[in-house]
Amino acid sequence: MGQPEPRETTNLATLYGEELMPWSRAAEALGTGSLPPAVPCFLGTLRPDGSPHAAGVGVLVRDGDLFFTSGPGTRKARNLAANASCTLSMRLDGIDLVLEGEARRERHPETLTAVTAAYGEGGWPAQVEGDAITAPYSAQSAGPAPWWLFRFQIRTAFGVGLRPPHGASRWDF
Fold this sequence. Notes:
Elements: E1 8-11, H1 23-30, E2 33-34, E3 41-46, E4 52-56, E5 60-62, E6 65-70, H2 75-82, E7 85-92, E8 95-106, H3 109-121, E9 127-129, E10 132-134, E11 148-161, E12 168-172
Antiparallel strand pairs: 1-12, 2-5, 3-4, 3-7, 5-6, 6-11, 7-8, 8-11, 9-10, 11-12
């Protein structure tokens, strides 16, 4: 499927005389494959009462799509089942990135197989079991196996450059 190119970009750093930061900078920082454990990634969801919930997640980028896993009984999975709106926030090489969008459970067998293979390339020995993923281990916050795979679709993104060229942009998709 792949993430689309932004339909609109807004420079948020004109106050400081900075140039527009292109989406390509964020896309290059995201790269492909599993983001390393040293890259902090946080998923923000909404509880049924509307209060916020945040949890660390491991993010994998494949063909421009972002994926993460969660056990069906976790707070984040239950929140997403009720309301797919969420955020992903991360500090990448040279850029802080906040993504707003929706995360939905991915059940397509070909996608599960391809993403599981990419997890394996990143060092996590995951495998497909039915319409979920299993492995000998996962993050403690993921809950017990099996884990559901979620695909994140970006609606809006915000980036702040951490080194020259500095800048801050908003991208609408």
